[in-house]
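User: Please fill in residues for this 206-position structure.
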């Protein structure tokens, strides 16, 4: 079902339905376990990634990095084959995006991020066992704080930052695992691994 609350995104999806009739072409649903302890928040579906497959981070380069890391650190089971029917299952985790619909050039407008923020809030509030939120990029970090009605200045974004929020949830910041960030080495696999090492360490120690 296509959401029409954001005219630009709605029109973009309608055009893509004509250009790519076999794509999912709609708001991409969350993937994983709603009763999980870890929520991962990305930016938005990629045109030929999640917008094609209908599953977050599936079919694009960022998904290769993310799911490889989730499997390595025990947050997923199975094998990632870059398609929604590969049988991969998340373990104690859920993946969502700050914006559910694919934006042109992968750049959602502030009004579109705000419009989708209620959806993010509902996802967070529905996770009754939530202990950890991993924000992939500055925009997802801002969206999570807005959804939680927390002030941006109190929880600054930087790769590797860890914030203990008032609701007793730990917020972790990472650069987005996009092809650009990996290729420019703004984010390396070792840097990304270090975030999950922190999450797993706090999970064991708390």
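Assistant: Residues filled in for all 206 positions:
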């Amino acid at each position: 079902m296509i959401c029409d609350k954001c005219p630009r995104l709605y029109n973009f999806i309608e055009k893509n339905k004509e250009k790519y009739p076999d794509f999912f072409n709609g708001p991409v649903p969350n993937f994983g376990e709603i009763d999980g302890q870890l929520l991962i928040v990305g930016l938005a579906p990629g045109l030929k990634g999640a917008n094609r497959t209908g599953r977050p981070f599936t079919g694009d380069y960022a998904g290769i990095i993310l799911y490889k890391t989730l499997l390595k650190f025990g947050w997923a089971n199975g094998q990632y084959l870059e398609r929604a029917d590969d049988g991969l299952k998340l373990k104690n985790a859920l993946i969502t995006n700050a914006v559910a619909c694919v934006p042109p050039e992968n750049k959602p407008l502030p009004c579109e991020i705000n419009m989708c923020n209620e959806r993010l809030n509902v996802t967070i509030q529905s996770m009754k066992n939530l202990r950890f939120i991993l924000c992939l990029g500055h925009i997802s970090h801002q969206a999570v704080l807005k959804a939680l009605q927390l002030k941006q200045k109190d929880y600054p974004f930087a790769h590797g930052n860890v914030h203990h929020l008032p609701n007793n949830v730990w917020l972790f910041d990472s650069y987005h695992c996009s092809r650009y960030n990996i290729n420019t080495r703004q984010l390396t696999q070792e840097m990304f691994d270090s975030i999950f090492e922190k999450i797993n360490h706090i999970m064991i120690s708390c």
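For context: The first helix runs from residue 7 to 19.
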